[in-house]
Hints:
This protein is an alpha/beta fold. Helix content is 43%, strand content 17%. The protein has an 8-stranded parallel beta sheet with strand order 7-6-5-4-3-2-1-8. The chain is globular and about 50 Å long.
Amino acid sequence: MTERKEELAANLARVKERIASACAAAGRDREEVTLLVVTKTYPASDVRILHELGVRQVAENRDQDAAPKAAECSDLSLSWHFVGQLQTNKVRSVVSYADVVQSVDRVKLVTALSSAAGRAGREIGCLIQVALDAESGERGARGGVAPDGIGELADAVAGAPGLRLDGLMTVAPLSGPFAGRQRAAFDRLMEFSSRLRGNHPAANMVSAGMSADLEDAIAAGATHVRVGTAVLGVRAGLG
Ligand SMILES: *Cc1c(COP(=O)(O)O)cnc(C)c1O
Protein backbone atom coordinates (compact mmCIF):
# COMPACT_ATOMS: atom_id res chain seq x y z
CA MET A 1 0.00 0.00 0.00
CA THR A 2 1.17 3.53 -0.70
CA GLU A 3 1.53 5.90 2.21
CA ARG A 4 -1.57 7.85 1.14
CA LYS A 5 -3.62 4.69 0.86
CA GLU A 6 -2.55 3.61 4.35
CA GLU A 7 -3.46 7.04 5.71
CA LEU A 8 -6.90 7.05 4.06
CA ALA A 9 -7.56 3.46 5.12
CA ALA A 10 -6.74 4.29 8.76
CA ASN A 11 -8.87 7.46 8.70
CA LEU A 12 -11.76 5.64 7.05
CA ALA A 13 -11.59 2.87 9.66
CA ARG A 14 -11.70 5.44 12.46
CA VAL A 15 -14.70 7.22 10.96
CA LYS A 16 -16.54 3.91 10.47
CA GLU A 17 -15.83 3.06 14.12
CA ARG A 18 -17.30 6.42 15.16
CA ILE A 19 -20.41 5.75 13.07
CA ALA A 20 -20.79 2.25 14.51
CA SER A 21 -20.40 3.52 18.09
CA ALA A 22 -22.88 6.34 17.50
CA CYS A 23 -25.40 3.86 16.04
CA ALA A 24 -24.92 1.52 19.00
CA ALA A 25 -25.33 4.41 21.48
CA ALA A 26 -28.54 5.48 19.72
CA GLY A 27 -29.91 1.94 19.47
CA ARG A 28 -29.88 2.13 15.67
CA ASP A 29 -28.79 -0.48 13.13
CA ARG A 30 -25.45 0.36 11.54
CA GLU A 31 -27.09 -0.19 8.14
CA GLU A 32 -29.38 2.80 8.72
CA VAL A 33 -26.49 5.23 8.26
CA THR A 34 -24.63 5.79 4.99
CA LEU A 35 -21.23 7.48 4.89
CA LEU A 36 -20.65 10.00 2.11
CA VAL A 37 -17.01 11.02 1.77
CA VAL A 38 -16.66 14.71 0.88
CA THR A 39 -13.69 14.81 -1.52
CA LYS A 40 -13.74 18.56 -2.27
CA THR A 41 -10.28 20.13 -2.77
CA TYR A 42 -8.70 16.65 -2.95
CA PRO A 43 -7.54 15.14 -6.26
CA ALA A 44 -9.09 12.42 -8.38
CA SER A 45 -6.25 10.13 -7.27
CA ASP A 46 -7.67 10.21 -3.74
CA VAL A 47 -11.15 9.40 -5.05
CA ARG A 48 -9.61 6.41 -6.82
CA ILE A 49 -7.93 5.22 -3.60
CA LEU A 50 -11.19 5.66 -1.68
CA HIS A 51 -12.93 3.54 -4.29
CA GLU A 52 -10.28 0.82 -3.83
CA LEU A 53 -11.03 1.02 -0.10
CA GLY A 54 -14.71 0.35 -0.74
CA VAL A 55 -16.18 3.86 -0.80
CA ARG A 56 -19.04 4.11 -3.30
CA GLN A 57 -20.57 7.51 -2.50
CA VAL A 58 -18.69 10.78 -2.66
CA ALA A 59 -19.72 14.43 -2.36
CA GLU A 60 -18.44 17.67 -3.86
CA ASN A 61 -19.44 21.31 -3.41
CA ARG A 62 -18.01 23.17 -6.44
CA ASP A 63 -18.82 22.25 -10.02
CA GLN A 64 -15.51 23.65 -11.32
CA ASP A 65 -13.62 21.05 -9.27
CA ALA A 66 -16.16 18.27 -9.35
CA ALA A 67 -16.79 18.08 -13.10
CA PRO A 68 -13.20 17.24 -14.14
CA LYS A 69 -12.79 14.93 -11.14
CA ALA A 70 -15.94 12.98 -11.99
CA ALA A 71 -14.75 12.75 -15.61
CA GLU A 72 -11.37 11.35 -14.49
CA CYS A 73 -13.19 8.78 -12.35
CA SER A 74 -15.91 7.87 -14.86
CA ASP A 75 -14.60 4.27 -15.06
CA LEU A 76 -15.42 3.74 -11.36
CA SER A 77 -18.82 2.77 -10.00
CA LEU A 78 -19.38 5.81 -7.82
CA SER A 79 -22.40 7.84 -6.87
CA TRP A 80 -21.72 11.61 -6.82
CA HIS A 81 -23.64 13.92 -4.50
CA PHE A 82 -23.56 17.67 -5.05
CA VAL A 83 -23.68 19.49 -1.70
CA GLY A 84 -22.67 23.10 -2.48
CA GLN A 85 -24.55 26.26 -3.33
CA LEU A 86 -25.59 25.83 -6.94
CA GLN A 87 -25.97 28.57 -9.57
CA THR A 88 -28.42 27.83 -12.35
CA ASN A 89 -25.71 28.27 -15.00
CA LYS A 90 -23.85 25.26 -13.51
CA VAL A 91 -26.89 23.01 -13.41
CA ARG A 92 -26.37 21.45 -16.81
CA SER A 93 -22.83 20.40 -15.91
CA VAL A 94 -23.79 19.10 -12.45
CA VAL A 95 -26.62 17.02 -13.88
CA SER A 96 -24.16 15.29 -16.22
CA TYR A 97 -22.36 13.53 -13.32
CA ALA A 98 -24.32 13.99 -10.09
CA ASP A 99 -26.84 11.39 -8.99
CA VAL A 100 -28.10 13.48 -6.10
CA VAL A 101 -28.23 17.25 -5.53
CA GLN A 102 -28.48 17.88 -1.78
CA SER A 103 -28.58 21.67 -1.94
CA VAL A 104 -31.94 22.41 -3.55
CA ASP A 105 -33.12 25.67 -1.98
CA ARG A 106 -35.28 27.61 -4.47
CA VAL A 107 -37.93 26.98 -7.08
CA LYS A 108 -35.82 28.51 -9.85
CA LEU A 109 -33.20 25.83 -9.20
CA VAL A 110 -35.85 23.10 -9.32
CA THR A 111 -36.98 24.33 -12.73
CA ALA A 112 -33.41 24.42 -14.06
CA LEU A 113 -32.59 20.96 -12.65
CA SER A 114 -35.74 19.49 -14.14
CA SER A 115 -35.10 20.75 -17.65
CA ALA A 116 -31.42 19.73 -17.51
CA ALA A 117 -32.35 16.26 -16.23
CA GLY A 118 -34.88 15.95 -19.06
CA ARG A 119 -32.32 16.94 -21.71
CA ALA A 120 -29.77 14.50 -20.25
CA GLY A 121 -32.34 11.72 -19.95
CA ARG A 122 -31.42 11.24 -16.28
CA GLU A 123 -33.30 11.10 -13.00
CA ILE A 124 -31.72 13.28 -10.30
CA GLY A 125 -32.36 12.73 -6.61
CA CYS A 126 -33.01 15.97 -4.73
CA LEU A 127 -32.72 16.93 -1.09
CA ILE A 128 -34.16 20.20 0.15
CA GLN A 129 -31.40 22.05 2.00
CA VAL A 130 -32.82 23.62 5.14
CA ALA A 131 -31.24 26.75 6.66
CA LEU A 132 -32.33 26.37 10.28
CA ASP A 133 -31.25 29.94 11.05
CA ALA A 134 -32.95 31.66 8.09
CA GLU A 135 -35.98 33.89 8.58
CA SER A 136 -39.25 33.27 6.77
CA GLY A 137 -38.86 33.72 3.03
CA GLU A 138 -35.06 34.07 3.22
CA ARG A 139 -32.18 31.79 2.37
CA GLY A 140 -29.26 30.99 4.66
CA ALA A 141 -25.77 32.49 4.32
CA ARG A 142 -24.49 29.06 3.30
CA GLY A 143 -27.52 28.22 1.17
CA GLY A 144 -30.70 26.49 2.22
CA VAL A 145 -34.31 27.53 2.44
CA ALA A 146 -35.98 28.84 5.59
CA PRO A 147 -37.97 26.08 7.33
CA ASP A 148 -41.34 27.55 6.29
CA GLY A 149 -40.35 27.16 2.62
CA ILE A 150 -39.77 23.40 2.76
CA GLY A 151 -43.30 22.39 1.81
CA GLU A 152 -43.54 24.50 -1.33
CA LEU A 153 -40.12 23.40 -2.57
CA ALA A 154 -40.83 19.75 -1.82
CA ASP A 155 -44.04 19.90 -3.85
CA ALA A 156 -42.16 21.59 -6.69
CA VAL A 157 -39.51 18.83 -6.76
CA ALA A 158 -42.10 16.07 -6.47
CA GLY A 159 -44.00 17.51 -9.44
CA ALA A 160 -40.93 18.12 -11.63
CA PRO A 161 -40.17 15.66 -14.45
CA GLY A 162 -36.70 14.11 -14.11
CA LEU A 163 -36.42 14.84 -10.39
CA ARG A 164 -37.00 12.57 -7.40
CA LEU A 165 -37.67 14.00 -3.94
CA ASP A 166 -35.32 12.12 -1.59
CA GLY A 167 -35.49 14.12 1.64
CA LEU A 168 -33.77 16.89 3.59
CA MET A 169 -30.24 18.14 4.20
CA THR A 170 -28.78 20.67 6.61
CA VAL A 171 -25.50 22.12 7.78
CA ALA A 172 -25.51 22.98 11.49
CA PRO A 173 -25.83 26.79 11.74
CA LEU A 174 -22.87 28.86 12.92
CA SER A 175 -25.13 31.68 14.13
CA GLY A 176 -28.63 32.17 15.46
CA PRO A 177 -30.42 30.13 18.11
CA PHE A 178 -28.82 26.83 17.03
CA ALA A 179 -25.20 28.06 17.01
CA GLY A 180 -23.10 25.54 18.92
CA ARG A 181 -26.19 23.36 19.53
CA GLN A 182 -25.79 20.69 16.87
CA ARG A 183 -27.97 18.11 18.56
CA ALA A 184 -30.85 20.55 18.90
CA ALA A 185 -30.38 21.61 15.28
CA PHE A 186 -30.48 18.04 14.01
CA ASP A 187 -33.50 17.22 16.20
CA ARG A 188 -35.28 20.16 14.59
CA LEU A 189 -34.38 18.87 11.13
CA MET A 190 -35.86 15.48 12.08
CA GLU A 191 -39.14 17.19 12.99
CA PHE A 192 -39.24 18.76 9.54
CA SER A 193 -38.40 15.37 8.04
CA SER A 194 -41.34 13.71 9.83
CA ARG A 195 -43.64 16.43 8.58
CA LEU A 196 -42.29 16.07 5.02
CA ARG A 197 -42.78 12.30 5.07
CA GLY A 198 -46.43 12.87 5.95
CA ASN A 199 -46.95 14.19 2.42
CA HIS A 200 -44.04 12.45 0.66
CA PRO A 201 -43.47 9.08 2.36
CA ALA A 202 -40.57 8.07 0.09
CA ALA A 203 -38.57 11.21 0.92
CA ASN A 204 -36.88 9.59 3.90
CA MET A 205 -33.24 10.65 3.48
CA VAL A 206 -31.88 12.91 6.19
CA SER A 207 -28.41 14.22 5.40
CA ALA A 208 -26.80 15.83 8.44
CA GLY A 209 -23.52 15.68 10.31
CA MET A 210 -19.93 16.25 9.24
CA SER A 211 -16.52 15.37 10.72
CA ALA A 212 -17.08 17.32 13.93
CA ASP A 213 -20.71 16.46 14.65
CA LEU A 214 -21.60 13.14 13.03
CA GLU A 215 -22.40 11.60 16.43
CA ASP A 216 -25.04 14.28 17.10
CA ALA A 217 -26.56 13.72 13.67
CA ILE A 218 -26.75 9.95 14.12
CA ALA A 219 -28.25 10.35 17.59
CA ALA A 220 -30.93 12.60 16.09
CA GLY A 221 -31.73 10.13 13.30
CA ALA A 222 -29.66 11.11 10.24
CA THR A 223 -29.53 8.54 7.44
CA HIS A 224 -26.51 10.09 5.68
CA VAL A 225 -23.42 11.73 7.17
CA ARG A 226 -21.06 13.83 5.00
CA VAL A 227 -17.48 13.49 6.15
CA GLY A 228 -14.50 15.26 4.60
CA THR A 229 -11.70 16.29 6.96
CA ALA A 230 -11.81 13.20 9.17
CA VAL A 231 -11.16 10.97 6.15
CA LEU A 232 -8.97 13.08 3.86
CA GLY A 233 -7.28 15.50 6.24
CA VAL A 234 -7.55 19.22 6.90
CA ARG A 235 -8.18 21.12 3.67
CA ALA A 236 -5.79 23.83 2.53
CA GLY A 237 -7.48 27.17 1.87
CA LEU A 238 -11.07 27.42 0.68
CA GLY A 239 -13.55 24.62 0.85
C1 LIG B 1 -17.20 20.38 3.31
C2 LIG B 1 -18.56 19.92 3.60
C3 LIG B 1 -18.78 18.80 4.42
C4 LIG B 1 -17.66 18.05 5.11
O1 LIG B 1 -17.12 18.81 6.15
P1 LIG B 1 -15.94 18.23 7.08
O2 LIG B 1 -15.96 19.11 8.26
O3 LIG B 1 -14.69 18.35 6.28
O4 LIG B 1 -16.25 16.83 7.39
C5 LIG B 1 -20.08 18.40 4.63
N1 LIG B 1 -21.12 19.04 4.04
C6 LIG B 1 -20.96 20.11 3.24
C7 LIG B 1 -22.15 20.77 2.65
C8 LIG B 1 -19.67 20.59 3.00
O5 LIG B 1 -19.51 21.66 2.21
